Amino acid sequence: MEKEIWGFIDSGDQSPSFNMALDEALLDWHSAGKIPPVIRFYGWNPATLSIGYFQKVEKEINMEAVKEHGLGFVRRPTGGRGVLHDQELTYSVIVSEEHPEMPKTVTEAYRVISEGILKGFHQLGLEAYFAVPKTAEERESLKNPRSAVCFDAPSWYELVVEGRKVAGSAQTRQKGVILQHGSILLDLDEDKLFSLFNYSNDRVKERMKKAFKSKAVAMNDISPRKISLDEAKVAFKKGFEDGLNIELKPFELSEEQMEYVLQLAKDRYESDEWNYKR
After folding, report:
1. Distance separating alpha carbons of residues 146 and 215, to the nearest angstrom
2. CB contact burial 4-13 (16+ within 10 A = b; e otherwise)
3. How far is residue 184's CA from residue 231's CA, in Å, rounded to a whole number?
4. Fewer Cβ neighbours under 10 Å: the N or C end of the chain?
5. In this structure, what are the phi and psi dihedrals at residue 176, rounded to the nearest 5 degrees?
């Protein structure tokens, strides 16, 4: 049986505004039937703190530290909490809600899409698996996360290795299209990450940081050998093909499409009104 062909984009390291604008543009074009479903890999230049759509900057984010570290800053169109995009492979998946393989519920669709990431870890020889929150307390903490840090909280169908979270994802549904994007950590600077958020006091910060170490981990902290970004890209591309039973073919943006993305980046994702609005 022939596999369905999806588009594949590796856009390399881009600005925070371009990255979010391209994800949004792909959602728009897929909604209009102009492009097939797409899987995209990307990186960030400069390294960037992205925050969830509903987060409050003044309350949660230490903008002085963001500037001191020379980081980019952008609000995502998806929910979730703050993510430091630094030493990672970032992915996005754009597919119609009506796709025959996509379940109707967010959590089940998340599981189906994340199957591609799971298979990617297996390609790299890492024993990743899905963990589901079992206790009432864990399920409740999904609704009321204690921390502004993405990797600090459990979510449904968490991707874990050796009991610790290795990938963090967020999803939105707009115009009949699912956009899921997320971070696959290669390495992580915890000190830098924890300097970017506001805490009621230093004791709380240290407690969160300590708890975080038991909950989240970067690939190269558990892999017996150093995994490069290029190697990760090959593994996760194959992982998505196997996990979603698809074939990925390179997708090139036209000049007109590129202009649209650049304009959207400037108008929305570089504007203070968007990034600081809540």
Report:
1. 13
2. eebbbbebee
3. 13
4. N
5. 75, 15
Catalytic residues: 150
Instruction: Kindly report the pTM of this predicted structure.
Output: 0.91
Bridge partners, 177 (sequence order): 96, 174
Instruction: Kindly report, residue by residue over 23-82, the tens digit of the pLDDT.
Output: 999 999 999 999 999 999 999 999 999 999 999 999 999 999 999 999 999 999 998 889
Read off the amino acid at residue 278.
R
Contact 216, 151 (CB under 8 A): yes
Tokens of 149: 């840090």
Nearest alpha carbon to residue 113 among 268, 246, 202, 244: 244
Q: 10 Å Cβ neighbour count for 210? A: 9
Which residues, at least 6 apart from 254, have a Cβ–Cβ distance to it below 8 Å? none
Instruction: Give the pair of three-digit tokens for residue 25.
Output: 């543009």
The amino acid at residue 92 is S
CA–CA distances in Å: residue 253 to residues 10, 21, 25, 219? 11, 13, 11, 31
* Tens-digit pLDDT profile for residues 205-258: 999 998 888 889 999 999 999 999 999 999 999 999 999 999 999 999 999 999
